[in-house]
């Protein structure tokens, strides 16, 4: 089945759910899914232009950026599922509309991305998808969640949370979270380094290397989101809603969890909706994708980190096909060396199945 039988053979008998698989959608492919005046605009506009930030992600061509493997269901099956024994890829369109300054344009793109996902990647395939939601107008996001909630192959939704203003715990978004809860759709947050130095946080403007930006962008975005969701009481107001955090690894979680505990212990009046400690909400309602898996000099430290977070809170993810994606072995070597078969299964498939209500 695999093209690298020896390398991936150990995972062949396991069920793998990949929580973070991105599509590469050429802008022109969205044109049939847009109404006027947006259809004509797309013919003369390059959406990605607003995301160009000048950074060289290829390190002068040393890193290959081949996205052909995610431009059709057949390519995903061949280059990801067959190659790495991924049984259930959860596909998103990697929409970055939430920082777009034009709300109507973003709303049109949101609907187009979701219609393309349903039509070209989920219809007739065995794949499941995460609907893209843009956040400038929460009432429009709520309407889209109502529309997507009727789609059997949509198992959750995807929010780009770098530069989102106000932060996502603000009561401004309550209508969106209510729609998510009503439709039994949990959320996956995903940060981005695209345009990051100009948006969040502002002090990032002086960094000189893309490496610096890429180290910080995703965890900073998630730290802001987790803090906002907890302190503003979203975790209490919507008790049936759960949250996943993609592509920031695991190392930032203990610091934030314990820092929030400390602040809550001395400033409890500023989070009046909370009935438990921040750590309890994080452990009970939040999941964290393994990619990019950290690389401590001492491997036992990674296993200590997994212990702190708990195998019941970690999602296996590759971030395929991005240049920094993780092969399944990057996580599984830690799981095999330390954890029980039941705990390993929980991370490789069980937690994603629970978060996204998968029947596997």
What's the total helix number? Answer: 13
Question: Which term fits the overall shape?
Answer: globular
What's the CATH architecture? Answer: Alpha-Beta Barrel
Overall residue-averaged pLDDT value: 90
Report the major sheet.
8 strands, parallel
Total domain modules: 1
CATH topology: TIM Barrel
Relative helix content: 40-55%
Query: How many beta-strand elements?
Result: 8
Annotated CATH homologous superfamily: Metal-dependent hydrolases
In the sheet with the most strands, the strands line up as 1-2-3-4-5-6-7-8
N-C termini distance: 20 Å
CATH class: Alpha Beta
Which tags fit this structure?
single chain, 360 residues, alpha/beta, TIM Barrel, eight-stranded parallel β-sheet, 13 helices, globular
Please describe the topology of this protein.
Layout: H1 5-8, E1 17-22, H2 38-43, H3 73-84, E2 88-92, H4 103-122, E3 128-133, H5 138-148, E4 154-160, H6 174-182, E5 186-190, H7 210-231, H8 234-237, E6 243-246, H9 252-266, H10 278-285, E7 286-289, H11 299-309, E8 314-315, H12 328-338, H13 341-355
